[in-house]
Task: structure prediction
Amino acid sequence: GNDPAHRFEIGGVCVTVMPDLIVQGRGPKFGALKFRYVKTKPITDKWAAYSATLLHQFVEERLSGPDGAVDRRRCNFVDVFAGRVHEAPSNFKELRKDVEAACWHIKELWPSVRMGDS
Result:
């Protein structure tokens, strides 16, 4: 999380995305994988869709060059113990708008958040 290359701004909030594996296919097609190693409860499909969408956005904004194309199907969130692979959904643009709206909301609320009693 300390590497500035893993941070980008969404809706006024600094978001950190750290892929576990970068994928480059034939030609200038890029993708990435993030592995989840939690035994207790599988990730929900909704959570996985947002996670894969953020991974896709990160690859698009930070890793692919001017000639590179990002393939959303190669941006996967892998829930290892549940045995499920979630790819960035085809409606990723809609999900990105949801994430941006949530970040704007967080940005607006953050100044009013109090940490402990001062």
Summary: The radius of gyration is 16 Å. Strands lie at 7-10, 13-16, 21-24, 29-36, 69-79, 84-87. The chain has a mean pLDDT of 88.
